[in-house]
Fold each of these.
Amino acid sequence: MVCGTVTEPATPSEPEVTHKVAISFDRCKITSVTCGCGNRDIFYCAHVVALSLYRIRKPEQVKLRLPISETLFQMNRDQLQKLVQYLITAHHTEVLPTAQKLADEILSSNSEINQVHGAPDPTAGASIDDDNCWHLDEDQVREQVKQFLSQGGYYGSGKQLNSMFAKVREMLRMRDSNGARMLTLITEQFMADPRLDLFQDCQLAPPTGALWVCVVLNPHCKSEEKSGWLKQLKKWGDLDVCPLEDGNYGSELPNITNALPQSNLAQDSLSRPRRSVFSRAVEACDLHWQDSHLQRIISSDHYMSPSYQREGESLLPRPDSVRPR
Ligand SMILES: [Zn+2]
């Protein structure tokens, strides 16, 4: 963990301001950030970035601290008493009510706090078995998507959502597990929004489906992750409101302007299973990189497997359906 203060220089209208910043690391990733400026965004605030850059450029100047639990372990009783009293003195009004409540709980033998051994340590890194991933403020992602959707696709909110897709793509490229996490949060917000038509109107559905195909095809993902995604994708796909693959809503008739011959259409729409915007991703969950058809597709520019070539429904979306408007 690295703590520091970041000072913003004075401007003609504003005085100099100093912010307290704390950054936790785990195996070379930033796993949590807090900054006194209170800015909330899916991107780190300038002060967190400043402290991170300072740590990268001048590692010898930034002292890495042991987790506080280990420092406390080295102290005897008198030192612990001194530490707590100085701490309370320094932050009298903020800390005293909590300190008194905790003291009552610790002195009461059947309190909840006495049922477990030890105590939490926010400064300690995760254990080696824990998932480690870059800090991502989930509430903030939800909030931003909701906000963009509430702007009704006007004022460039479609563009902003596309920039969130670009962020997901970037994360997937970097093999950052937050890519799937962020896409889940975005999709959840889309599906929960009462104005789901926006999802369709802004052409957000095709890139969402296409990104899910990329996520589930990740050769490095764990099988339990994949089965979790599959369950979620099927659930979304089964919702009545879920947009369909060919750009229609579940409740509407198929679009007759499609290139299919008219005579086949009526029968076709009855016999063909309903394909949601997530159907390709669901199918992709069954695909293995060792699959012989796939191996041949990858190794040749011209090979097309007959089994993946039903009515132009290739597993990967056509380039024109993923391009943002
Ligand atoms: Zn800040």
Amino acid sequence: MSKGQGTALVTGASAGIGAVYADRLARRGYDLVLVARDEAKLKALMARLVAETGVKVEILRADLANADDIRKVETRLYSDDITMLVNNAGIAVAGPTIAMNSERLDAMIQLNVVVATRLARAVAPGLAQRRKGDIVNIASVVAIRGDQPAISVGYGASKAYLLAFSEGLDSELAPYGVRVQAVLPGVTRTELWEKGGLDINALPQDIVMETGDMVDAALVGLDQGERVTIPALPDVSDWVAFKTARAALLPNVSHRLPAERYRRTSADGVRQPGRGEHNG
Ligand SMILES: NC(=O)c1ccc[n+]([C@@H]2O[C@H](COP(=O)([O-])OP(=O)(O)OC[C@H]3O[C@@H](n4cnc5c(N)ncnc54)[C@H](OP(=O)(O)O)[C@@H]3O)[C@@H](O)[C@H]2O)c1
């Protein structure tokens, strides 16, 4: 029985963060569409959530590496009942880029970047037209690690893309009353680590968050209207300072001439004019 929140479609709902989102959203009164490959796990989750919450739960088995399956999920996102997309399915391929298998790197970029983008694009027009809804993109704190990559450079870059995509899409959709939230979890206790050949228990345990705590915090962030939520960050003004520093660069990153330090100096030490200063 619908409790009036509409329907949330959660990708990667068979395990980890996605399964907890499904649980919490059902308790908030959302009907659900659960997307992943492992149908048995999705069925078990569906049975529990229907029994415990009474919401409607639908299973959409899909391998998001498969073009036909991606189209099936896009088609479901076109429906009028959809009020939320949780773009959560993702994989982490670990290791140095020079040693990485190209196909696994490609699969990671496809899922973390291309599929997340396509699903957001599929759901956005309907949400905008109905002037209501949320897109939640599960990025990662690796998105802001810059030249200090964790897990792998490609994984960090895929999540940096998702953060940039979220922030930009939020600006586009804000006039329609649609919110786009990027969630940047730190290390979270899920199977992702083991699947990526990494031992979460080898990490200092004071940087590891339980999945329930992470998702609950992200939903509180959404309730508070945050567009970027870093569940572990104690002081939100640190994020604001980061954004302010970035914004301060913007008036100065496009000019007619290169910056003074890049203007050529001839062998005799005489500064050469920039290209735009030539007469002929
Ligand atoms: N755990 C962390 O420390 C952490 C930190 C920051 C961000 N994140 C991000 O959080 C998200 C969820 O990760 P998690 O930690 O919950 O990982 P997880 O426990 O491994 O769960 C990943 C989910 O994605 C689904 N999935 C993977 N490949 C898929 C495919 N080809 N088609 C459809 N579904 C697929 C899996 O389902 P099936 O196998 O059934 O298809 C599973 O439900 C990811 O985007 C991850 O990058 C995780």
Amino acid sequence: MTENLNLQRGLLRHISQFTEVELLDKIKVQSIATEDREGGGWPLVHLSDGRTLRARLLVGADGFNSPVRSYARIQSYGWAYDRHAIVATMNHPPRGPFQGSNTVAYQRFLPTGPIAFLPLSETSSSLVWSTKPQLASALKTVDPQVLADMINAAFRLPDVSLCYLQDRILDAEQSGSPLKPSQFRDELAFRERSDTIDVRSAYSSLAPEQSSAGIPSEDADAVPPIVTSIQAGTIASFPLRFSHAESYIGEGQGVRTVLVGDAAHTVHPLAGQGLNGGLADVEALVRCIEHALLRGGDVACDKLHKLYSSTSQPVVWARSVGLEVLNELDTIKAALMMSAGSERHRRRPGEVGWELAAKSIENFATGLDNARALGGSLANVVGDGVRSLWERGGSGRA
Ligand SMILES: Cc1cc2nc3c(=O)[nH]c(=O)nc-3n(C[C@H](O)[C@H](O)[C@H](O)COP(=O)(O)OP(=O)(O)OC[C@H]3O[C@@H](n4cnc5c(N)ncnc54)[C@H](O)[C@@H]3O)c2cc1C
């Protein structure tokens, strides 16, 4: 477990080493537009301080409601779980000398959703409790001591008793007379007695002798430490949903955009993988950009990916000629990119990709002699390749 604040502090410290990185704090992205330029402009990011940034590559790391995703018109699919996650930081006594450190995470899968107890320090742990929205809302507004007792119960009592206690909380909220901590304690004591829970067992959350001193009960490791209070200002809740963007890379209007993290995908927090998925996205993106730049390409690496993953003959040929050469030859580049595998480009029946590419460069081929006239081995290399393509296209061989 690493607290988000610590992660953020570490990252801020790291980026402060790079003088070329400017951090814009307390500034919002107000809108994003496309630069009006022939051949397609770059994204223009309008900031709340009046500045406009022109982005060679705009990375949408802007969360579930990603403005970058909306700008790039990338669809996102998924569903709501009809569950909210209530989070809080819980205080509890340290583990006893016979129990070791507070390093064990606990998760109980209740019929309404999992509740997780995630250690932060010897005396504090983090709560993530996925439950029905109505109950999450009630738990957020009850007296924090009632919430602490309810958390203890949620790790210890049978489901039927938990349902009873939850109903008590919901009823009290609906009636407008919130439960007092002492009232809830009475209810809890009643349920523990009905469930024949021994007060010396770790499954009792009310035993007065619940302390870290002495030899722990046999079942002490089966449940997390007793929560004694909730840290002020730490209770919050979040709606949970699964979503996945149709594409992580923008095309058309969204060209030069890429999505990472929750902007690209959100998952249920029960496995604690959301942030980790985002970090993996960033690692993959960095690799992709490095790959492109080290080969003299552009940071908008979608087309490079298509070019390198294609096995079509003209594209393989083009790869060996070299991207730098092709970059200068717009007509060929366009034709090859088209052949490089865009699904959106529908071929007519019987028409193979390289034929299309060859047709697209027909006009260019006639101009090659002129290029040769300029001399230079470069033009010859390209010329031979194009001619070979053109001849194959003419004979109809695939
Ligand atoms: C209850 C809960 C528990 C979780 N527990 C875990 C866990 O244990 N482990 C784990 O790996 N993941 C966990 N996750 C998931 C994790 O929190 C997310 O996956 C992660 O925060 C996503 O990071 P992100 O940077 O992509 O998006 P966000 O954290 O949503 O950050 C997006 C940022 O963009 C900013 N932004 C948006 N619009 C604008 C704008 N117009 N201008 C300027 N800034 C803007 C927002 O202010 C925000 O700071 C949990 C999620 C929930 C809901």
Amino acid sequence: MIFPWLASTWRQLHQSLETRRPQAVLLSGVNGVGQRELAAHVGGWLLCDHPSPQGACGQCVGCTWVAAGTHPDYWVIEPEEGSRTIKVDTIRSRLADAPQTTHRSGLRVIVMGPMEALNVAASNALLKTLEEPTESTLFVLWTAAFARLLPTIISRCQRVRCAVTDESAALAWLVSEVPQLSALEARVLLCLADGGPLAAQEWYAAKGLALRGECMRQLRDLLVSRSWLDSQVCEEWVASHKGGRWLLVWISVLVDIERAYCGVPAAYWTHRDCEPQLRQIVGAWSVDRVRQALSRALEARRVLGVSSGINESLLWESLLNQL
Ligand SMILES: [Zn+2]
């Protein structure tokens, strides 16, 4: 299945693959835009006995094996459950042992991602394979952090950008997946998720809207009536939005407050559904304080992006303490 906002991306990729088979394609885009699913779609199409411009037929032997996870020439390499990394040993053991010939005398397809899960050692191990291309193997790689990949890997791939080119299609999909959502909430979730519809769905499942509302209420209490934040809610907030997602919400709230100061209409805010709460915060805060808070939050995001093992709850608390 192709997500509606990626239909034209697939059409172009299909045409180019019909003309020329690169050694590797790299599907990149924001988290949850559907690059992983598109990678699987491409992989299935490549191994289908009766492929069409829409994709795999779903009926042939190749398709049946891919669907059952038993196709000997269809390899999926992802982080193991509970882990965020693809280990160098995994890359070495899978790729070094790859036989020259394939089981069905066709192509071997290796779908791998997210590429940012490879550390330098694992990336170098992959690079070694990419430097010795074989006609029988095609890599379909996917990433949500293109800027963090080794240039030497990027240069060996045909890059395909995955993006939501038609926001209304993404919103319609989101509302059809989560019928409880109003159109406004769907838009807020999509903004929070940086434009990735599948990530927006995850935000909803992780009670992102409810927690955001609670966070905003407490922030307003803190700024307007100087009451202190409930530390348990803070911890819960960080725990359910790990990996810095809580920080993205915080930054988006601050950006909205700054927008309000600059007279940007609420229709252009991320949290347009929280206009009354945000207006109250605006009244209690000077624009300089907002900008200082924003620059501290952006610095925290930078630190989170380049370091590991940071206690996110403590980071959040320190940001709040400096307000
Ligand atoms: Zn098929």
